[in-house]
């Protein structure tokens, strides 16, 4: 996470918490815990979306269903240790309910010590003592490498009873990682692998169905390799981007339905947001007006209703087309 943005969030949450001064709670500790709660909410919605259409995605990877954090990512490490349990510098902050990691017996606070027989070297103190996610990103890359193949994933973890190796087999799901961008601005994006949603937007959505509408749209960009398509475009890039936005809107409906979220939430979100702002996230010549997006959502919901259902899911036409590309 971005350290400066994180500090802004702490200040903002301090204002909200400080009104109840009689409560024996540290506002910064509560802010840290609130951020992890947002991380878990986004990770849970993302995990269900990725799992729901896994059999239809060409781009897949394995997701353990956990949220990791690093003591160094927090501006005040002493308060972070009060807020959370860190059995290793990088530890489990939260677990997706009924996800692979929690089913394997892992717990919040368990620390990552190694993978595949090799221990993680965390190193000494940073050159500059400041909040940074550099070490966390490095560990995430190691996790991704260890999960790249098939078979059991063996993690050396430090638990409340000591170190042990936990072996489990996270299933392949549609490929996307998810992270909270700690800013009040209502915004979201995708970079080809990761889906970013701001704290402000997470707080704005009415419920998890609306959050799923936002995440599914961004995830669709990753699943359809839109970033690579746009980068290959030499001329007429605006038209290409607008085309990818339509595809992401249409695919999002199918992803939501396959994960058990209500596709109508995409309509409710854009009607409310569009009427309130008329401008904002995704508003540019490369994007459709919110009224047009609502029309496309309705068209896609109607189209989806006529497709064959298999085990409660439907094969999205855009993913079927994507699988056919050589």
TrEMBL record:
Protein name: M48 family metalloprotease
UniProt similarity note: Belongs to the peptidase M48 family.
Documented EC number(s): 3.4.24.-
Signal sequence annotation: 1-18
Gene source species: Sphingorhabdus buctiana
Cofactor annotation: Zn(2+)
InterPro entries xrefs: Mito/Outer_Membr_Metalloprot, Peptidase_M48
Superkingdom of origin: Bacteria
Peptidase M48 domain: residues covered: 191-228
Keyword annotations from UniProtKB, A to Z: Hydrolase, Metal-binding, Metalloprotease, Protease, Signal, Zinc
